Amino acid sequence: MSTATQTAEVDQVRQDIRLLGRILGEVIAKQEGQEIFELVETARTTAFAIARREKDAEALLDLFRERPVAETNLVARSFTFFALLANLAEDLDDEKHGDFVTLDSTFDKLKDKGVSAQQANEVISGALVSPVLTAHPTETRRRSIFDAQKHIKELIKATRREGVTPEIERQLTLRITLLWQTGLIRVSRPSLEDEIKVGLRYYQLSLLEEIPALNLTVRRKYRETFDQEVDSAAMVRPGSWIGGDHDGNPYVDGEKVAHATTQAALVALSYYERELHELERELSLTQRHSEPTAELVALADASNNTNALRLDEPYRRAIFGIRARIQATLDRAKGKVKKKIKAAPYNQPEELLADLAVIDHSLRAAKDDIIADDRLLKIRAAVKTFGFHLHSLDLRQNSESFENVLTEIFALNGYTDDYRGLGEEEKIALLQEELETKRPLLFPRGSKWREQLSADTEKELGIFEAAAKAVSQFGRAAVPHCIISMTGSVSDILEPMVLLKEYGMDEVDLVPLFETIDDLEAGASILDKLWNVPVYREHLTRRGNKQEVMLGYSDSNKDGGYLQANWALYDAELDLVEVCRAHGVELRLFHGRGGAVGRGGGPTYDALLAQPAGAVSGSVRITEQGEVISAQYGSPETARHHLQSFVAGVLEASLLDTEPMKDTERAYAVMRELSALSAERYQELVGDPGFIDYFTQSTPLAEIGELNIGSRPAARKQTKAISDLRAIPWVLSWSQQRTNVPGWFGVGSALSKWAGEDESRWDELRALYSEWPFFRTVLSNMAQVMSKAEISLARLYADLVDDQEVAGRIYELIREEFQLTRNAYLRITGFEGLAGDNQRQARSLKRRYPYLLPLNVIQAEMLRRYREGDDSFVVANTIRVTMNGLATALRNAG
Which of 266, 245, 210, 889 is nearest to 623 (CA)? Predict the structure, then answer.
C-alpha cells in the first residue's frame, strides 16, 4: 500500500472521528449544559497534556477528587460514548482497507505449493471450523445501542460519498442524541436470557448470511482451483456456550438449556420462513415456459395450494407447501398446539433439504441453473449449515460437580457409600461396569428416590434431561459436546458419560478440558489410558475415532504466567498429536481463547499458523468472547473478513508446512528454558505475601462481582485464591487497571537471563522470531497487549491498597519487568515501538490513548469512594460505565 494511500486513510478516519466527536460535544452541551461540556473539554485537554508528558495523572485526578459524582458520571459517559463512536469510524476503515486474509490467496498458496486435489478434499470433506460464542460481562449491550450504531455507521458511509450535508449532520445529531439518552448498560445484573438474546443478535447482524455464503465460497474456490467438486457439506458450523455453560454459574439449569436451544432454533426456522417467502415471490415460472419435473409437480400438488392464480406456477405452489411445513415446525418449537394442522412439521432438516433438492433438480433440468444458484442455493446452504438448531450448544461443567452427583446417586442406589473416596482404578472399574449395563441408574422424577436427591444434583440431572429433549426436537447437532472442566483423570471423563447414557445421549462427544499447567502436561497420558478402557474405545469407534480436546488458556496463565502458559499449551499439543498417531485417533482441538492476550487472544489466522504440525488437521473450534465479538461479527463485512481468515488459517495449517525451522529440537529446548525462567519470575510476583491484597485492592476485582456486571459470579466458589477466580475477572481486572499483567509478565526476565550479554544468543532469538510462527506470534501478541498498557496509571490504583509498603514494592516489580520486557522485545524485533508490526493499531492507540485517561482516573476515584462506604447508585453506576468504556476502547480487554 502506498504512503499516499495510507495518509488518505488516516486523514479519513481522523476526519470521521472529529465529526462524530464534535457532534457528541454539541449534544452534551445542549442536553447537560455548557458547564458540563466545558468540564469534559477540560478533562480532554488535560489528558492530551498528560499524553504529551507535560502533566502527570495527578492533574486529572485533581479535577475529579472533590467533584460531585453526578457531574463525574456525565464525564465518564462522554468518554465512553466517544470510544464507541471512534470504534465505528475505525471499523469502517478496517472493512475497506484492512489487511485481511482471503480464500483467493489461500487457494493460490495451496496450488503453488503442490497440494493435490485429493489432499485438499480429504481435509475439507471432514473439516469443522467452529466459532463458539460465549457470554461476556462488558459485552451485554442493549438492542437500542446496536441499532444506533448501525444508523450512525450508515450515515458516516454517506458522508464519505456525499460529504457532510445539512441533512446528514441533522441525522447524525438525532442518532447521537438518542444514543446519549439511552442507557449504555443495564443497571441490573443481566440475566442469562439477556445474554442468550445478545448472542443470537449477531446471527441477525451477520452470521445467518455470512456463514452459509462462506461455505459456498469454499466449494467454489475448490472447484475453480482443482476443477472438481469437493465432498463437503458445511465447513463452518457455529457453536455457543451461552445457556449451556454451568461451570460455576448457578443460574444455568434445565429451563435455561431449553430456552437457549429453543430460541436458537426459532432464529434458524424464522430465517428459513422469510427466505422461502421471498423465494416463493421470485419463482414465478409458469409451466407453459419452463417444464417442471414430475417430482416437482408432485410436490406442488401436495402443497394444498388451490389458488386458481397459481395453477400454472408449480414452483410457487411447491414452495408454498414447504413454507407451510416450516411454519408448522416453528409452531411446534414455540410449543403451539393447533387443533387443525394445515401442514405437517418437518422432523429433520434432511426432510427440508430433500424438498429443496426437488426444486433444484427441476430448475437445472429446465436449464435454469442461474435461478437455482441464486436464493435457492443460499437457502440450501443455510439449512446444511444451521439445520433446525442454528448452533451447537455445549454443556460444560467442572469435573468435581460430576463426581459429586455420582457420589450421591451411587450411595442412594447402594453401589458404594463413598464413591468420591475410591481410588482411581476402583472408580474406573465401577464406571465401566455402569456403562456396560442396560439397567437404568436413575429413577423417574416424582419417585421417593428422586426426592432424596440434593437440589444441586437434581439441577444437574435437569440439565441433561433438557439437553436430551433438545436433541430429540432439533437434532443431534443441537447439543453435541459435553466439556469437562479441570479434567485430571480418566474417571473425570467417564463420569459424565454415565449420566449422558441415562438420557440416551450416548453419541455426545466427551471433551476433556486441560487447563492448569499440571493438567496440560498430563493430558496425553490421561488420553492414552482412557483409550485403553474398552467401553470408551467403543464409544470413540462409534464417533469415527475422533477425539476433541479443549485447551484452556486462562488457568494455565494464572498458574505460570504468559510465556510458560503458551509453551505448556504448545508442548501439550505436541504430546497430544503423538498419542493420537499412536492410537489411530483423529484429534480436534478446541481452543478456549478469550479476547485478551492473557487468555489466548490475538489474530485467529496467526494463531492457527502458529500451531504445531498435526494439531489442526482440518478441524478446530475456538471460543469467541469479549469485545472482539462485536468487532468481528457486528457487521456483515467484518464477519466475512474474520471468518475467511479463520477458514484460511485452518486450510493452510492443515495442508502446508507452517513450521519451516531446520532444528525444531533446538527451538523446543530454548523454549523450555525460557518458559522455566519466565515462570520463576512470575512466581516472584504471585508468591509475594502481599500479592493477593495488592491484586484485590488495586484492581476492580471485587466490584466486578458486586456490581452486577455479568450473570456469572466472579469466582467458582467464595475464596481469595487466584486459582478459583474465573478467567474473565482475572484478566479484566488487570486490563482495567491498565497493566495487563497476564499478557506479558516474566517474558523480559526470561529473555534477558537466557541471552545475557551473549550477542549470539540474541541472534538465535532473532532467528526464532523470523522463522518460527509460534515464537513470532507469542511475542507479537505480547507486544499488542503491552502497547495498550499504561504503567504510570497503575500508581493511582496502587494508592487504593491499604498497605502502601506492599503497594510500592509490587508496583515497582511490575514497572521494572514491563520496561525489561519492552527492551527485550525491541532488541529482538528491531522495531522502534511496541506496535511496530501493526501500524494500523499504532495509529488507533495514538488517537484514543488520551481519551482513555479520564476513564481510568474517574474509575480510580470512584473505587476509592465506593470502598470508603459511598455505595450510592450513581457511584456504582459510574464504575460500571468506566469499566464498559475502557473495555470498549481497548477492544479485547477480557
Answer: 245
pLDDT at 672: 97
Angle at 461 between CA 460 and CA 467, to 5 degrees: 95
Query: How many Cβ atoms are within 10 Å of 160's Cβ, its own excluded?
Result: 13
**Between residues 137 and 418, which one has the greater pLDDT?**
418
Instruction: Count Cβ atoms within 10 A of the Cβ of residue 412 and give its class: 0-12 exposed, 13-18 middle, 19 or more buried.
Output: middle
The amino acid present at 793, given as its one-letter code, is L
Q: What are the backbone angles phi and psi of residue 744, rounded to the nearest 5°?
A: -165, -20
pLDDT tens digit string along 625-660?
A: 766 788 789 889 889 999 999 999 999 999 998 777
625 and 525, same structural domain?
A: yes
What are the cell numbers at 592? Answer: 478456549
Going by C-alpha positions, the residue among 152, 149, 10, 163 that lies closest to residue 90 is: 10
Least confident of 234-248, 322-336, 543-557, 880-894: 880-894
Q: Is 225 left (phi over 0), alpha (psi -120 to 50) or beta?
A: alpha
In this structure, are 827 and 699 located in the same domain? yes
Q: Give the distance between the most distant pair of CA atoms in the chain.
A: 91
Three-state SS for 257-322 is HHHHHHHHHHHHHHHHHHHHHHHHHHCCCCCCCCCCCHHHHHHHHCCCCCCHHHCCCHHHHHHHHH
How many domains in the chain? 3
Which residues belong to the active site?
136, 558
Q: What is the mean pLDDT of residues 167-194?
A: 87
- Whole-prediction pTM value? 0.89
| Segments forming the whole domain that contains residue 749 | 665-837
- Decide: 248 and 713 in contact? Cβ < 8 Å: yes
Kindly report the CA angle at 459 between 457 and 463, in degrees rounded to 5? 115
pLDDT at 437 over 70: yes
- Domain stops at, among 837, 854, 888: 837
Residue 59 placed within a domain: no
Residues 378 and 421 reside in one and the same domain:
no
Secondary structure of residue 561 in the 3-state scheme: coil
Angle at 54 between CA 50 and CA 58, to 5 degrees: 50
Condensed to tens digits (0 to 9), the pLDDT of residues 537-565 reads: 999 999 999 999 999 887 778 888 999 99
**Residue with the larger pLDDT of the pair 710 and 886:** 886
633 lies in the same domain as 684:
no
CA distance 742 to 732: 10
Single out the residue of 319, 335, 295, 610 nearest to residue 469, CA to CA: 335
- Domain end marker among 596, 626, 655: 655
174: in domain: no
291 sits in the region (left: phi over 0; alpha: psi -120 to 50; else beta) called beta
**Does 29 score more than 50 pLDDT?**
yes
Average confidence (pLDDT) over 10-37: 93
Q: Grid coordinates standing for 731?
A: 484478566
pLDDT at 699 over 70: yes
8 A C-beta contact, residue 690 and residue 809: yes
Spatial separation of the C-alpha atoms in residues 189 and 709, rounded to whole Å: 6
Nearest to residue 743, comparing CAs of 616, 550, 593?
593
What CATH number did the domain enclosing 617 receive? 3.20.20
706: left (phi over 0), alpha (psi -120 to 50) or beta: alpha
Contact by Cβ (8 Å): 372, 364: yes
In a domain, 870, yes or no: no
pLDDT, tens only, 668-693:
999 999 999 999 999 999 999 999 99
Per-residue pLDDT, averaged over 511-536, amounts to: 95
Tell me the per-residue pLDDT of 736-788, one tens digit each, with 9 for 90 and over. Answer: 999 999 999 999 999 999 999 999 999 999 999 999 999 999 999 999 889 98
Give me the amino acid identity at 222.
Y
Q: CA-CA distance, 363 to 218, in Å (whole number)?
A: 23
Burial 283-305 (b: 16+ CB within 10 A, else e): bebebeebebbebbbebbeebeb
